[in-house]
Design goal:
Length: 329
C-alpha cells in the first residue's frame, strides 16, 4: 500500500508530492490515516529554514486529525478507527530536568511533529501514542485541526497573559481567532491589531465579538491588561509594551520573530512583563481540548487538497485568508 505526502526536499523550495510505502508503527506508535491537517505559520518557518533544526527531507504539518489505522506494540488505550489529534510536541525524553518539573515543553531532547519527524501533510503518518489525543466524534475534522496548534499554543499564551479583562491580540490569524472566542466566552474584552489597513481582517475580528480592531501601528482606545503577539514581527514588541498598562504583560506566542528594535526602558518600566511561549505540554492539550467544545469554539477554515499545500502556504504568507488553512487529503 502506498501513501502520498507533500515533502520538503530543500529549504526554501516548494514542497513536492511524493509517494511512499505506508510506514508501519513501531513500539509505542500509532499509524494514522490523516483526515485533515492544519497549516500553521510555523510550517512557513520550517519551509523557509528560519528554525535551526529544519533538516530536509521532511513532511511538515503538526495540526493533525486522523484515524487510527494501525497500532504498534505496547500501545494501549486506542482502538482502530478512533479519531485522534497530533500536536506539535511529538515526544519528550521524560528524564531531563524540564520533563521532571512539569515543563516538558522545554525538554532538552524533544521531537517535533512536522519538523524533526514527519508530520501530517500526507495521507498517512506515524505518531508517538503518548502524545496523541482522543478527539471524540463531535465536530468536523477540518474545523478541529487548527485546535492542535493554533488552539493549544494559543491557550498556553492566553494562560500566561493572566486574568486581565482587556486583552490585545497582535496578528489576527488562526490562533487569535480562536482566542478571541475563548476570551469573549469568558466575558473579557478583546482588541485586535492587524496589518495596517487590513480592513478584511479587522471586519473578521469584529464579527467574532472583538470590541476594537485597528492597525498594529495604532494605539488601542485605552491601556490593555495584556497583549499576545502572534505576528512574527519584532517591532510589535515595543508597540505592545506601549499599549499595556503598568504591570501589564506582553506574551510572544510565535516560534520565530524578526529582530526586536531597541526601545526606551520606559516601555518596560513600571513592572510590565515580557515573556515568550515555547511549544506546549500535554496538560495544555488536555485542558484546551476539554475547554474548546464547552466554549463553542468554531474555526473558520479554508480547505485545500493535499496537493495544494504550496498554495495554502503562500496564501498564509500573504495574509490572503481569514482564520486557518487546512489540508484535506
Ligand atoms: Zn526532557
Ligand atoms: Zn503550529
Amino acid at each position: 500500500m502506498t501513501m502520498r505526502c507533500m515533502q520538503l526536499d530543500r529549504l526554501g523550495e516548494p514542497l513536492r508530492l511524493r509517494e511512499r510505502h505506508v510506514p508501519q508503527p513501531g513500539n509505542g506508535e500509532l499509524m494514522l490515516a490523516v483526515s485533515a491537517c492544519g497549516v500553521c505559520r510555523t510550517d512557513l518557518h520550517v519551509v523557509d529554514g528560519d528554525l535551526t533544526h529544519s533538516k530536509p527531507p521532511i513532511v511538515p504539518g503538526h495540526e493533525i486529525v486522523g484515524r487510527v489505522a494501525a497500532v504498534g506494540q505496547g500501545v494501549s488505550g486506542f482502538r482502530m478507527g478512533e479519531r485522534v489529534g497530533v500536536p506539535w510536541l511529538g515526544a519528550t525524553c521524560g528524564v531531563c530536568p524540564y520533563c521532571r518539573e512539569d515543563a516538558e515543553n522545554l525538554c532538552n531532547a524533544p521531537v517535533f511533529t512536522g519538523y524533526t519527524r514527519d508530520g501530517g501533510f500526507a495521507t498517512h503518518t506515524i505518531a508517538d501514542a503518548r502524545y496523541c489525543f482522543p478527539l471524540g466524534e463531535d465536530g468536523n475534522d477540518a474545523e478541529i485541526a487548527p485546535w492542535l496548534c493554533a488552539g493549544l499554543i494559543g491557550w498556553r499564551s492566553y494562560r500566561m497573559a493572566g486574568d486581565g479583562r482587556a486583552l490585545g491580540l497582535y496578528g489576527f490569524g488562526a490562533a487569535a481567532h480562536i482566542l478571541a472566542q475563548v476570551a469573549r466566552w469568558q466575558g473579557r474584552r478583546v482588541f485586535a491589531f492587524t496589518r495596517k489597513s487590513d480592513t478584511a481582517a479587522q471586519d473578521f475580528a469584529r464579527s467574532l465579538g472583538v470590541e476594537w480592531a485597528g492597525g498594529s501601528d495604532e494605539m488601542p482606545p485605552e491601556p490593555l491588561d495584556a497583549a499576545i503577539i502572534f505576528a512574527p514581527v519584532g517591532a510589535l514588541v515595543p508597540a505592545a509594551l506601549k499599549a499595556v498598562r503598568k504591570g501589564g504583560r506582553v506574551i510572544c506566542g510565535g516560534i520565530h520573530m524578526s529582530d526586536i528594535p531597541s526601545f526606551p526602558y520606559a516601555l518596560l518600566w513600571e513592572e510590565r512583563q515580557l515573556r515568550s511561549v515555547a511549544n506546549l505540554t500535554r496538560e495544555d492539550a488536555r485542558e484546551f481540548l476539554q475547554f474548546a467544545p464547552q466554549a463553542g469554539v468554531r474555526c473558520e477554515v479554508t480547505r485545500y487538497p493535499l496537493e495544494q499545500a504550496n498554495e495554502a502556504l503562500a496564501d498564509l504568507r500573504e495574509g490572503r485568508l481569514q482564520g486557518a488553512a487546512v489540508l484535506v487529503p
